[in-house]
UniProtKB/TrEMBL annotation:
UniProt protein name: DUF2029 domain-containing protein
Keywords noted in UniProt: Membrane, Transmembrane, Transmembrane helix
Organism, scientific name: Aromatoleum petrolei
Transmembrane feature ranges: 74-104, 116-138, 158-178, 245-266, 317-335, 355-379
Length: 388
């Protein structure tokens, strides 16, 4: 009976994610939408040098270009040499390779395609489905990062990846902290920070107008769509991200909390691969504007941790992380669909897959799950000196 109830509950949790993924891919054709932003910016850069004011068919595009001018100028230079069509094919191949790497590593760690499918489809009503087809550069980044960790690469390849990614997504320079969290090769974060500072220092000196345009656009967008993690705390306080010393002080407190939590959790992780994934989770929580795709790393973390847990710990882990990331959003989805069952709302496909509330709040569930995972790992009650 318990096994039947468990399977039924699991199926009910998977339904929202399956429907969400189908509606995105089949009805809305919502894939690689972030890539369109970069295409618009490259066209604008090639036309008149200002990627923050779209031209042509991109005038009314719903997402602004918030990527730094350093990376945009680099991509535009490649487009002028190879052509935008060739650059587009290169991007799609790179993106597909990054997604494939992520799923491949998750499959190898988990040893079960079913487990990977569950973790991709179920969390926060299938948000990971949308993130894997979004076109955002964060997805191939996490694919490459998870592959390096799985291969047991040292700090230098990880640091090189962080430096290479920084011109496109500056917050990912924070992943230079991974060697520090793992307490090895302490000079790598400093060397990486110098390299990233050179990227942006040169950009600010050589292209001050575009650098200022990027900062203004990025901050405005962050206040309109603040994301989750620390930024949701700022949003709930009624402050804005550019509010000065109060924000700096609040972030310093948050960063100190996450730092201590992560170091403690890393120390209590029983394997080197787990220590690396725990460090990734800590860095993600340090990002001022945590996004849904940053929580993708919950998947390899959960798969690597599971074999090391005893029965009691598995119940605790499922209660915390599974509750926040899977059960709670699925329950809310079903409750909001009771109107369809009762006939109070027309039982149409569009009403069934309408997930506006979850789309607006899915990151909060994943942020709660990521934070719960780190807290649980830091304060787990087992004898961590003996691997399971």
């Amino acid at each position: 009976m318990n096994a039947m109830l468990l399977r039924t509950g699991l199926a009910l949790c998977l339904v929202p994610g399956l429907l969400f993924g189908l509606s995105l891919l089949l009805e809305h054709r919502a894939y690689l939408w972030d890539a369109t932003v970069y295409r618009c910016a490259i066209e604008a850069t090639l036309a008149h040098g200002d990627p923050y004011r779209f031209v042509g068919d991109c005038t009314d595009y719903f997402l602004p270009h918030t990527y730094p001018y350093a990376g945009t100028r680099l991509m535009a230079g490649l487009a002028s040499l190879a052509g935008t069509t060739v650059l587009g094919y290169i991007y799609v191949l790179t993106y597909a390779a990054g997604c494939a790497l992520f799923l491949y590593v998750a499959g190898r760690i988990g040893g079960s395609p079913q487990a990977v499918a569950l973790l991709v489809l179920a969390p926060a009503a299938g948000v990971f489905v949308s993130e894997l087809v979004s076109g955002n550069m964060g997805v191939p980044f996490y694919g490459a990062l998870s592959w390096l960790i799985w291969r047991g690469a040292g700090g230098r390849p990880v640091a090189a990846l962080g430096v290479a990614m920084a011109p496109f997504k500056p917050l990912y320079a924070a992943y230079l902290l991974l060697p520090f969290f793992q307490r090895r090769e302490m000079l790598l974060p400093l060397a990486g920070a110098i390299a990233v500072a050179a990227w942006y220092g040169g950009d600010a000196l050589l292209f001050p107008t575009h650098f200022a345009d990027w900062l203004r656009t990025a901050v405005d967008h962050a206040n309109e769509v603040p994301g989750f993690g620390f930024s949701i705390l700022v949003r709930k306080s009624g402050l804005e991200l550019q509010s000065g010393l109060s924000i700096v002080a609040a972030y310093a407190v948050w960063a100190a909390f996450v730092l201590v939590l992560t170091l403690r959790a890393v120390e209590r992780a029983p394997t080197s691969m787990l220590r690396a994934f725990v460090a990734v989770a800590g860095v993600a929580l340090l990002l001022p504007r945590l996004k849904e795709y940053d929580c993708l790393m919950l998947i390899p973390l959960a798969l690597a941790l599971w074999p090391t847990l005893d029965a009691r710990e598995r119940r605790e882990w499922l209660g915390l992380v599974g509750g926040f990331a899977i059960v709670l959003p699925a329950v809310i989805w079903w409750l909001r669909k009771l109107a369809l069952v009762g006939g109070a709302s027309p039982a149409t496909w569009r009403n069934l897959v309408d997930m506006r509330w979850l789309v607006q709040n899915q990151g909060a569930f994943l942020f709660a799950a990521l934070l719960a995972a780190l807290v649980w790992l830091a304060f787990r009650s087992r004898d961590v000196a003996k691997p399971a």
